[in-house]
Amino acid sequence: MTTKKIKKESLEGSLARLEEIVDALEHGNVALDDAVALYEEGLSLAKDSADRLKAAELKIKKLSKDIDGKFKVTELDEE
Amino acid sequence: MTVEKNVLTVSELTRQVKYALEGNFPRVWVQGEISNCKHHTSGHLYFTLKDEGAQISGVMWRSRVPLLPFMPEDGINVIARGSITVYPPRGNYQIDVEQMQPLGVGELQIAFEKLKQKLAAEGLFDEEHKIPIPQYPERIGVVTSETGAALQDIRSVFARRHPSIELILYPVKVQGDGAAEEIAHAIDDFNRFGSVDVLIVGRGGGSLEDLWAFNEELVARAIYASQIPIISAVGHEIDFSIADFVADLRAPTPSAAAELAVKHRADIIENLANLCYTMQEAAQNIIEAAKTKIGSAVSSYSFNRPRDLVREYSQRTDELERTMNTAVLHATQAACQRQQALAHRLEALSPQGVLKRGYTIVRHRGKVVTSAKILKQGDEANIQFHNGEVTTRVEQ
Question: What is the pTM of this model?
């Protein structure tokens, strides 16, 4: 379990996994070493999720295609 | 009774009636209410057309029934086109209907019903095709007009509830020629682009004609084909659009769609803090249990493992406990602080938002003026706009 892999995950995935970990620790009859590993993973997920919820300003972008048909995402101009 | 020479048989009479009737009414339009409607197993449709004063039997042959733009039912007022026919074995006459339309329903409504039936039969509205909407989306695609109210509505809901969201607009025409093509194309493109968690497709309210693009087959098929879950947001609270039936979730307005798409960020953060707390408790319990086990193992008579190994293990447990406690404390505190900071931010932002909409705050000697009676002629007043202040004097 690497931190890189977690970073790539979504908030959706992180929270689902975190719930799983909490459930396992609560009811799973987990051995100490496994518990510690789960716990560390959980903390990292929690931190990652909190980071994802940090942005204070709503980002508004626009999806369009250039002449080659490649997608580009640009800032949407303010009114 | 004198008997005339020219006596007709029933068959002959009926034949004459048949010629007379069928010859005179080869093609009529008649308006009436359907009753006694029966869809026969043969596929033919039998019914009665009636008004207050009269009734006539009607039949529609099997081959014509599928072309009907609506489902004939008792009580529907229709205009029917057909010819009068006489059925000699029963001695009755009827109207052989070629085509009929529900009365007072426009062409669009008919087309709507027809498409709805067709797509329903194909299974496009089936529940098992609906994709669940993610609980915690981070990027949300929006297919609507760049200039319409829908975008502004969605945007303000996100800004209020969950400003960490990234909104990606694909601007399209939402009414008029080519609108359906643009909407369908945008949905396809989002699927090719891939990296959005959910799509909101819609526009603000309008007449049936204005909203028509969302009733087009092209749009329905694009929604059905989408691998990204779609919330339809056609601003028409009462009626449904075809897009609503196909979409994974239907919202009555664009604002409602935005609310269905994202939770309050403060709630997510609270949930996160709770999870951290529960996790800590659970881990703590496991450590306590391990400690008890070690304790009893050490003191037990049958204990025969190398003492050092146990000490090491015991020490490691203590260390882990310490790191766990500090780390959890930080994680939960950070989450809590963030939540509070957010709440403050929201409070601070709201009057500013009001000012931006054109309201001002008037102060006299530093106090907010809430009544016209407070100010007298010659008084100086400060007017605060969202971007600055001016001083003014009351003339009257």
Answer: 0.61
